[in-house]
Amino acid sequence: MPRRGRARIITGALAAAIAALGLAGPMQAAAPAPRLDFSADEMALARGVARNPGLAAWYGGTALAPVFTAPQQAPRRAALLAALGSAATHGLPDVYDAAALAAMEGRTDPGAEAAFARSFARWTHDVGGGIVNPRPLDPGILREVPRVPTETLLARFVAAPDPAAMLDTVPPQSREYRALREALTAAIGPVAGADLPTVPGGPWREGMQDPGVAALRLRLAAMGFDAESDTPDLFDAALAGQLAAYQRRAGLPPDGVAGPRTLARVNGAAQGAPQGLLIALERMRWMGTHDLDARMVWVNLPEFVARVKEGGATVFQTKVVIGSDAPDRRTPEFSDEMEDVVVNPRWNVPRSITTKEYLPRLQKNRNAVAHLDVVDSRGRVIPRESVDFGRYTAGNFPYRLRQKPSDDNALGEVKFIFPNSMNIYLHDTPSKGLFNESRRAFSHGCIRVARPVELAEVLLEGTAADPAARYARARASGRETFLELTPHLPVHLVYFTTTVDENGRIRSLPDVYGRDPLVWAALVKAGLGRDNGRGLETAALAE
C-alpha cells in the first residue's frame, strides 16, 4: 500500500480513537464531557493502538488508562508473557514479540503499553480463533469463525482477579483441543529452554540399567509422563509403562522400548512436529466460540463418521457416506443448527441433478425416471405428456422433480435438516452397500447415514417421553412428517485428517478433498513451520 494510503488509514483510526475519549466505555457507566486537550503520551498511545479497532475502542473508552505498564500491573505483564511463551504448545508461530516485551519490564511509557496491548490482541485473536482466515482457502471451506471481540477480552482481563487464569480461557476448551495439544507436546518434546539433558545411547528395554536412562526419565517427566524411582538409571516397569503412554500420544508404536526413533522424538529432534497435528489445532481454533461441550452432531468428513456428542463425549456414532471428490460434489465444511427430523421425506431433486442428469434423459424419453414427479413452481404435479422437454435448457427449465415418500425414495425413510444455502443435509438411503467401503465418498454432496433410525431416536430424546414411539407413529402414517428438535441442535461438518483417540493415539485419515496442503500453505505464510528454535520445525504431512 502506498505510504499516503497507510497514513490516511492510521489518521482515520487515530481520529476514531481520540473521538472516543471522554465517551462512556466498557468500564464506565456515565459519559463525561468530551476532552479537547491530550498530552503527548496520550497521543503516542492512541497512535500505537490505532491500527487495531478493538484496541482503539478499548483505550478510547477508558481515557487511555494503562492496562499493562503501571507498577501495580506487573501480574498482568507476567501473565501475558507466560501466555506468549506457550505459543509453541498451541502450534502457533513465534511472532508475538515475547522477548522484546520482556526487555520492556519497568517501562511505563506509551510505547511499551502499546506493544503489550498489540501482543495481547494478536495472541488472543490467534489462539482464540486461528491465525488463518479459512473462507478464502477453498470453495468447500465455508466456516465462519465466531470470535470474542478484543475489547471484550480486555474488559475480562482487566476485571480478572487472576489474569493468567483468564488467559487460559481464551484457547478452545474442548477435549479434542486439549488432546491435540498433549499430542503436540509429546511430538515436539519438552519446551525449548528447559534445562534438560539430551538422552544418549539406547536402545533400552525393561530390566536394563544405564546412566542414560536417568536422562530419559527426566525428559519424560517434563512432558507429564512421570515415573519417579530411587534408582533412576534402572529401566523399570513403571518407566516402561510411562514410555509406552508417551509413544501412544506421539503416534509411535507403544512397545515401551527406548529405540532410536523414540529417543529422537523424546529429544525433540529429527521428526519435528507432524504437520497434521498443527493443521488440526488450527482447524479446532476455527471452531471459535462454539460450545463443543454442548449436545451436538459432529460429522468428521475424512473419517466418514457422524457422532452425537454430549459434554465432549460420544453418545452415538454411525458410518456415513459423503460427497465424492468431483469439484461440484464435495461436502462443504460449516456449522449450523439442526431443526427437524423429517420422517417419510419427499425427495426434492437438487436443480443441478435435475438439469445435468435427468433433463437430458427426459428429452430422449419423456417416460424416463418414472419414479419422479414433474412439479411446477406452485407445487402441482404436471402430466409429462403436457411438457415439451426438448424446448428447455439447463438454464430455463421451469419445473422441479420430486419423489414421493416410499421405501425406494432416494432419501430413505428419514432425513435430518439444518436449512442452508447449499441444500446439504443428512439422510437415510436405500443403497446400503456403500457403507461396507472404507473410503465412503460417493454422494452428490449430502451425507448418507448408515443407522438413520437410531440417529433419529437419539436426536428426539427430550422431545417426547418415548422417542422411539414418536418416530414409529410418524413412520406408520406414510406421510411426510416434520418432528421438530427443541431446542435446535448444533451440527458441525468438520474436516480433521489428524485426530487423537480416547487412548491418546494419533490417527491419520485420508485427505479426501486435498484441503490440507492449502491450509498448510496458509499457516506457513503466517509464520508456522519455520525453524524458530522452539521445536516447531515440521515433519511431512504423511507422517
UniProtKB/TrEMBL annotation:
**Sorted alphabetically, which InterPro entries does this protein's record hold?**
LD-transpeptidase_YkuD-like, LD_TPept_cat_dom, LD_TPept_scaffold_dom, Peptidoglycan-bd-like, PGBD-like_sf, PGBDSf, Transpep_catalytic_dom
* A GO biological-process term: cell wall organization
**Active site, UniProt feature:** 427 (proton donor/acceptor), 446 (nucleophile)
Q: Which residues form the L,D-TPase catalytic domain?
A: 295-468
Cite the annotated pathway. Cell wall biogenesis; peptidoglycan biosynthesis
Which GO molecular function entries does the Swiss-Prot or TrEMBL record give?
carboxypeptidase activity; transferase activity
Give start-end of the signal peptide.
1-29
**Keywords for this entry?**
Cell shape, Cell wall biogenesis/degradation, Peptidoglycan synthesis, Signal, Transferase
PANTHER family, sorted = BLR7131 PROTEIN, L,D-TRANSPEPTIDASE HI_1667-RELATED
Family per similarity comment: Belongs to the YkuD family.
Q: What is this protein called?
A: Peptidoglycan-binding protein
Q: Show the taxonomic lineage.
A: Bacteria, Pseudomonadati, Pseudomonadota, Alphaproteobacteria, Rhodobacterales
